[in-house]
C-alpha cells in the first residue's frame, strides 16, 4: 500500500521513524514490522527492542491525547463538522471547514512563528541555555497584526549570549512533552531493571543522549520548551521529574473547559508584563499561556516540599477538586458526543471514538497520571489503528457524488483511512482558496 501523509501530523517535520495523524487517526511506524509489534512488551528485553517499544508508546500517546482529552475530543468534533460540511456540497456550509483547518495549522505554528537564530551544539554542562518568556501577536487573514490574538514564546540564549531559537508554547509543545515523557519513562524503567553496574553506565549514556539530542537541541524545541519552562519555574534539576510534572500539567491543561479556564487567576507577574494580552490569551484558550499560568500559580506551593500534588495544583489555581473538575469535563465530552450524533457522515464512527475516549479519560485521570500509555496497551484497554513498515491493505477509491448521495455513518478503520485521505484533500483545497 502507499502510505499517505494525511493532514498535519505529530511530529510535523521529521516523519522518518513514526508519526500520528489526527485526521486519519492512524499511528504509522515506518521502521517496525507487524511481527515486531506483536512481540512488544514481552520478557525478552534488550535496548534495541525497548527503543522500538518507546517509539510506539510515543506515537500512541499522541493518539490517546487526541481521543481522551477534552481538547482532542473537541478537535474530532471540528473534523466531523468539516467533513459533513464538505460532503453537503452546499457552499453556505463550507465555513465549518475553517475551524478544523485553522486549528490544524496552529498545532505547531511552524510556518512563521518559530524563529531559528544561531546553530549551537551541546557538548557538556557548560552549554546549557538561559530562557526568557515573551508574547507576540498573530496575523489576521488579511495579513495584519491582530492585538487580540497574542501567543506566548520561549526565547533561548546560550552561555555566550547568542540567541538560539524563539518557539511558541503551542498545542504541539504540550503534546510532544506528554509523548516524550511516556517514551523516556519506558526506557528508564528498563534501565533501572538492569544489574547495578550496567544500570549506572546505561543511565549516564541515556542522560547524555537526552541532553544532547532533546533537551539542548534547538531543532527539538517543540519537545523541550515546556520541560525547560517547568524546570525553571519550579526549580527542578532532574530531567524525568521535570518531564513527569510537565506532562501532568499539560494533560490537565488539555482537559480544561472554557468555564474552568476562566476562573484561573492570571499570574501577577504575567499581568504586569503582558497586561491586556493575558486576558486575550485566556479568552482565546491559548494553551501555552494556560499551561504557564497553572505552573506559575503553583510554584510557591510546590517549593514547600518539592512533591507534585494534583489537588494542590488545582487549589492554587482556584479550580475545584478533581472529582468536580472531572464531572464538568465529562459533561462537555457528552455534549460533544450529542453534537456528533446530529451529523450524517461517520457519526457512528466518531461517537464510538468519543465513548472510548471517555472511558480511557476516567482510567488515566484528570492529569493522565493514574495509568500510563504502556499499561493501557498491555491491558488492551486502548487499541490504536497502526500501519507498520510491512502493513498492506487495499486502499479504497471514493467519488464525491456517491458520498453525497450515500454518506457512510460508520467505516472499518482501513476504509476510514482511505476516506479521510480523499476528503482531506478537498478540505485543504477550500482552506487554500478562501478569501481569494
H and E string = EEHHHHEEEEHHHHHHHHHHHHEHH
Rg estimate, integer Å: 22 Å
Strand arrangement across the biggest beta sheet: 3-6-5-4
Name the helicity range. Answer: 55-70%
Shape: globular
Overall mean pLDDT stands at 93
SS element count, helices: 18
Class based on secondary structure composition and strand pairing: alpha+beta
What fraction of the residues are assigned to beta strands by DSSP? Answer: 5-15%
Runs in which pLDDT lies below 50 for 5 or more consecutive residues are none
Q: Kindly, what is the distance between the CA atoms of the first and last residues, rounded to a whole number of angstroms?
A: 36 Å
Report the count of strand segments: 7
**How does the major sheet shape up?**
4 strands, antiparallel
Account of the protein in words:
This protein is 56% helix and 10% strand. The radius of gyration is 22 Å and the shape is globular. The model has no long low-confidence stretch (mean pLDDT 93). With 436 residues, the protein is α+β, with helices and mostly antiparallel strands. Strands 3-6-5-4 form a four-stranded antiparallel sheet. Strands 1-2-7 form a three-stranded mixed sheet, with helices on one face.
Amino acid at each position: 500500500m502507499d502510505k499517505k501523509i494525511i493532514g498535519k501530523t505529530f511530529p510535523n517535520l521529521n516523519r522518518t521513524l513514526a508519526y500520528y495523524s489526527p485526521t486519519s487517526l492512524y499511528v504509522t511506524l515506518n521502521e517496525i514490522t507487524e511481527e515486531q509489534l506483536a512481540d512488544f512488551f514481552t520478557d525478552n528485553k534488550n535496548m534495541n527492542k525497548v527503543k522500538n517499544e518507546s517509539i510506539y508508546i510515543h506515537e500512541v500517546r499522541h493518539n490517546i491525547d487526541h481521543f481522551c482529552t477534552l481538547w482532542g475530543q473537541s478537535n474530532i468534533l471540528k473534523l466531523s463538522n468539516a467533513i459533513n460540511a464538505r460532503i453537503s456540497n452546499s457552499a453556505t456550509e463550507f465555513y465549518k471547514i475553517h475551524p478544523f483547518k485553522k486549528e490544524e495549522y496552529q498545532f505547531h505554528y511552524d510556518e512563521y512563528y518559530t524563529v531559528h537564530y544561531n546553530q549551537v551544539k551541546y557538548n557538556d554542562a557548560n552549554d546549557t541555555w538561559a530562557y526568557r518568556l515573551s508574547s507576540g501577536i498573530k496575523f489576521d487573514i488579511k495579513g495584519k497584526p491582530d492585538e487580540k490574538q497574542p501567543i506566548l514564546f520561549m526565547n533561548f540564549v546560550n552561555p555566550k549570549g547568542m540567541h538560539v531559537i524563539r518557539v511558541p508554547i503551542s498545542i504541539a509543545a504540550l503534546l510532544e512533552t506528554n509523548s516524550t515523557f511516556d517514551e523516556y519513562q519506558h526506557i528508564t524503567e528498563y534501565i533501572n531493571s538492569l544489574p547495578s553496574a550496567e544500570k549506572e553506565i546505561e543511565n549516564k549514556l541515556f542522560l547524555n543522549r537526552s541532553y544532547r539530542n532533546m533537551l539542548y537541541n534547538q531543532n527539538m524545541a517543540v519537545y523541550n520548551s515546556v520541560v525547560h519552562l517547568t524546570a525553571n519555574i519550579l526549580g527542578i534539576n532532574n530531567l524525568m521529574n521535570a518531564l513527569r510534572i510537565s506532562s501532568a500539567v499539560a494533560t490537565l491543561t488539555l482537559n480544561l473547559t472554557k468555564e474552568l479556564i476562566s476562573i484561573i487567576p492570571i499570574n501577577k507577574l504575567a499581568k504586569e508584563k503582558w497586561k491586556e494580552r493575558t486576558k486575550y490569551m485566556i479568552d482565546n484558550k491559548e494553551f501555552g499561556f494556560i499551561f504557564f499560568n497553572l505552573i506559575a500559580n503553583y510554584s510557591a506551593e510546590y517549593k514547600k516540599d518539592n512533591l507534585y500534588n494534583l489537588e494542590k495544583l488545582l487549589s492554587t489555581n482556584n479550580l475545584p477538586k478533581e472529582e468536580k473538575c472531572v464531572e464538568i469535563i465529562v459533561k462537555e465530552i457528552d455534549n460533544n458526543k450529542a453534537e456528533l450524533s446530529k451529523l450524517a457522515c461517520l457519526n457512528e464512527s466518531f461517537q464510538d471514538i468519543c465513548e472510548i475516549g471517555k472511558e480511557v479519560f476516567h482510567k488515566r485521570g484528570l492529569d493522565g497520571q493514574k495509568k500510563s500509555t504502556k499499561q493501557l496497551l498491555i491491558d488492551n484497554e486502548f487499541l490504536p489503528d497502526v500501519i507498520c513498515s510491512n502493513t498492506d491493505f487495499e486502499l479504497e477509491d471514493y467519488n464525491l457524488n456517491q458520498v453525497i448521495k450515500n454518506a457512510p455513518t460508520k467505516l472499518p478503520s482501513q476504509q476510514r483511512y482511505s476516506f479521510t485521505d480523499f476528503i482531506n484533500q478537498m478540505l485543504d483545497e477550500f482552506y487554500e482558496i478562501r478569501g481569494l
